[in-house]
Amino acid sequence: MDTLDRDRLRPRGDDGDDGDATTYASPQLATAGNGADDYRTIAQDAREQRRARHVRDDSAVQALGWFSIALGAAEIAMPRAVARAAGAPLPAAIVRTFGAREIAAGVGLLTQPRPAGWMWGRVAGDALDLVALAGSLASSRAARGRVLLTMGAIAAITAADVNAARRLERRQASLPGEMRRDGSVRVERSVTINRPVEECYRRWRDVERLPEFMSHLQSVERIDDRRSRWTAKAPAGMRVEWEAEITHDAPNEWIAWRSLPGADIENAGAVRFVPSRGGTVVSVAMRYTPPLRTVGKLVGKVFGEEPEQQVREDLRRFKRLLEAGEIPTTQGQPAGRRSALFRMLAKVNPA
After folding, report:
1. Which of 43, 119, 150, 266 satisfies CB 3.0 to 4.6 Å to 165 for a cystine?
2. Phi, psi of 266 (to 5 degrees)
């Protein structure tokens, strides 16, 4: 760790609460094998995340977003003039509908952190424009030359939209919580704890006590110094099990792990402990493959059992446990009447 750039491990704007981790690259990770290879891949993904953190800042995306808004405004304000310029005798109501769609797409591209879907929406809109223009060619009032010229321009814009949408999808895939092409999802979280590195490491390394602050875990059984058997809650009252092994263990610095073959949920990752202003920055980077891939991830979101949510809450509980000696709970406190939906979910997924 002498050569490790510790500042790069601090989350940006860290104020004592949890936040997105930055990068975890180090000489040890670059040369280690086995489980560290898993973590090295996650570290490389973290570098991609820095480029994707502001995906919508892409200059081409910005240009297309403003173009959509400008075109949409013109179509709404001057529908007949726009139709005449295109050479197509389209009803004003249809042109205004196209304008509203363009403005919505432009606002989405300029304001949303994951704009790929909005870009694909532009592609679909381009296709509708081409269909409408092609249909107008059958009208005797159509200026065929201008219509064909307009269709050629829209086809060129469509090609630019498709290229931008694909680029955005690739960049968004490197964001935490997004499913990658291989079906895996990466999770990265950090928290600053006002306790020494040694205490944080020692508590995390005692794997059988992890369920004390990892609420989704039912039990962790130590098999030997490196291997353990895990049982965790899953959506709809189910549970999942797997065996894991610690692949690298640098006391008071970092721990890397991976699941063994046959796991219900394949996972790998690492946790780092970095001194910071008298406390410790605890950073977790993890990759997992949800059962049934996209369907499994969606079900996890519905039932609140998704690893991204779990890691965030687990780190908060870990912080409270070490700093206060206990985790605050609402059990035994009076509460208002729960909604019917809450009671239904509680029956299928009891605590």
Report:
1. 119
2. -70, 135
